Amino acid sequence: MRAAQLTAYRQPLTLATIPDPEPPRDGVVLRVLACGVCRSDWHAWSGADPDVVLPMVPGHEYCGEVVAVGPEVTRWHVGDRVIAPFILACGRCGDCAAGNQTTCATQVVPGFTCDGAFAEMIAVAHADANLTALPGTLAPEIAASLGCRVTTAWQALVGRAELKPGEWLAVFGGGGVGISALLLGRALGARVVVVDVVPEKLDYARTLGADAVVNAAEQGSVDAVREITGGGAHVSVEALGIETTTVAAMRALRKMGRMVQIGMPAGDHAQMRLPMDVLYSGQLSVHGTRGMPSWRYPSLLNLIAGGQVDLSPLVTRTIALSNASAELAAFDRPAPPGVAVITDFQN
């Protein structure tokens, strides 16, 4: 099959023909219909993720059609179209039984601990415990974002911060997961302010329904958010994984506010200096989040099916596999608005 392999850090991916994958005993092989290019892929490409062993096929945000089934799989058959979360939990351990699949000790993460979906096909472990049927009304390029960005934002807002209608949500970072948080926050009845330094991203957020935007390159984001929200946001999400925006997301909260760290702190940002006096005096709650357990898919899909949220503006460009390298390199600087999704695996 055709695949794009990471063979050297911070270098263009190698387009190669590699053997077709075999299904794990409890897994399936998918013909990939679409795969997003995510900032987390950039962490792998740049060498910041210690789990990655070269060569590796990146790609963790995908949907596909089942083309082969392992002998232990009971729920899925050849021809089924499915969505996969990027964390493939075992489904059998205590954490999985408690519903905390994202903390499974033996989890498999395509693109990081095994080959991912920048390829015509991908082997998906633990299929019965993780896969969800792809609704026929959902375009593959939109469904691919449900593997990471949209689901991560949904878990952050619903599972961690418990965002309520009428509350103010401050989103620090207007990339894919930040825009997902904006769209979902609005669908949940919150008022949303988006903070970024790229005017085009702020304009994009405004067209998608942001109640306010703040250009942090032109004014102090903390003071601006506190003024807009009348004393601070009830909930903030940090969607970049860097110290500056993490500190700002904490300081922009009102007392008893809740912050969720969505962005992946890696490289120079793996260690941060945070204002613990603000956490103490404001009696804040700070949550980490990573992915979404598969049992939350029905609530998200019902929201989409009911017309409460339109995710189509999230994807601003569909690309060929050969263009993935350029999209990864673009994360070295402020990337263009919206999400790039690979839909052409032949070119």
TrEMBL record:
MF terms (GO), sorted A to Z: oxidoreductase activity, acting on the CH-OH group of donors, NAD or NADP as acceptor; zinc ion binding
CDD domains: Zn_ADH6
Domain Enoyl reductase (ER) intervals: 10-342
Pfam families per record: ADH_N (PF08240), ADH_zinc_N (PF00107)
Listed PROSITE patterns: ADH_ZINC
Keywords, sorted A to Z: Metal-binding, Oxidoreductase, Zinc
Domain of life: Bacteria
Keyword Metal-binding: yes
UniProt entry tagged with the keyword DNA-binding: no
Cofactor: Zn(2+)
UniProt-listed InterPro entries: ADH-like_C, ADH-like_N, ADH_Zn_CS, ER, GroES-like_sf, NAD(P)-bd_dom_sf, Zn_alcohol_dh
Family: Belongs to the zinc-containing alcohol dehydrogenase family.
PANTHER family, alphabetized: ALCOHOL DEHYDROGENASE-RELATED, L-THREONINE 3-DEHYDROGENASE
Record-given protein name: Alcohol dehydrogenase
Provenance organism: Shimia aestuarii
